């Protein structure tokens, strides 16, 4: 009976973890560049061990927490500082602990003219330096498909400012989530060049979270959690009855 109780407890914990993961995805359904988080589970015992050692009762745990890097749809904004990547690649930004990678391109210019993410991280150029844009009151910012930033002046002149750093990684599984939309490259991960990046100015990549799929998963997880909770409650009732029977003379 004890084994069955712990098996139900393991199931309840796994559903609770899944609910927390789904809640995080739903909270970012409208966050530009957000990539949904996924969980996979595994059984602690397999094959003969489950039959011989656990009498068919099993326990599970989180096997892997990983990210779905599939592209989200593009939304046109007409803001010249909004940029989306159509296809592979990441923007490089300077985090507090080194280089970060993101698909979120709703950039801003701070009072010093530095191009930053909305949470204040400097956007990096091809030489891993910060990008400084001159006074935009005398010109308009234009970005080519290859990621070159220009300043267009009223007299028709075009001055090249910087080349956005747009890179890929050899194995996306090596990217570890640092914030809602930024990632760091784990040990052994290799940064790779993007030969033909496709930057779309005036657009943003929307989150790849599907509201319908996440809500369906949330309902299923809640139902399973409630089932495990009822099983645990039943074990508690049985234990109380056994104690009462044990006190009879």
Low-confidence spans: none
Backbone structural class: alpha+beta
End-to-end C-alpha gap:
24 Å
**Total number of strands:** 17
Total number of domains: 2
Q: Using the CA coordinates, give the radius of gyration.
A: 26 Å
Number of helices: 3
Helix content: 25-40%
Portion in beta strands? 25-35%
Overall pLDDT: 85
Give the strand order of the largest sheet, numbering strands 1, 2, ... along the chain: 13-14-6-5-12-15
Q: Main sheet, how many strands, which sense, barrel? A: 6 strands, antiparallel
Provide the succession of SSEs: HEHEEEEEEEEEEEEEEEEH
The dominant shape is elongated
Features:
249 residues, alpha+beta, 2 domains, 3 helices, 17 strands, 28% helix
């Amino acid at each position: 009976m004890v084994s069955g109780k712990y098996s139900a407890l393991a199931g309840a914990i796994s559903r609770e973890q899944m609910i927390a993961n789904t809640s995080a995805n739903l909270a970012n359904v409208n966050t530009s560049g957000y990539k949904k988080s996924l969980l996979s589970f595994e059984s602690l015992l397999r094959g003969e061990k489950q039959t011989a050692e656990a009498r068919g009762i099993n326990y599970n745990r989180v096997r892997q927490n990983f990210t779905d890097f599939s592209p989200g749809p593009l939304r046109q904004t007409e803001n010249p500082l909004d940029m989306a990547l159509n296809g592979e690649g990441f923007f490089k930004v300077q985090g507090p602990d080194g280089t970060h990678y993101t698909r979120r391109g709703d950039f801003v210019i701070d009072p010093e003219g530095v191009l930053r993410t909305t949470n204040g991280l400097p956007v990096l150029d091809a030489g891993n330096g910060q990008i400084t844009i001159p006074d935009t009151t005398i010109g308009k910012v234009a970005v080519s498909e290859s990621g070159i930033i220009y300043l267009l002046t009223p007299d028709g002149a075009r001055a090249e400012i910087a080349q956005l750093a747009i890179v890929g990684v050899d194995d996306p599984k090596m990217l570890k989530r640092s914030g809602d939309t930024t990632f760091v490259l784990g040990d052994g991960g290799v940064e790779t060049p993007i030969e033909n990046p496709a930057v779309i100015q005036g657009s943003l990549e929307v989150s790849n979270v599907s509201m319908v799929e996440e809500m369906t998963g949330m309902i299923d997880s809640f139902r399973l959690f409630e089932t495990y909770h009822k099983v645990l409650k039943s074990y508690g009732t049985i234990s109380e009855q056994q104690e009462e029977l044990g006190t009879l003379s």
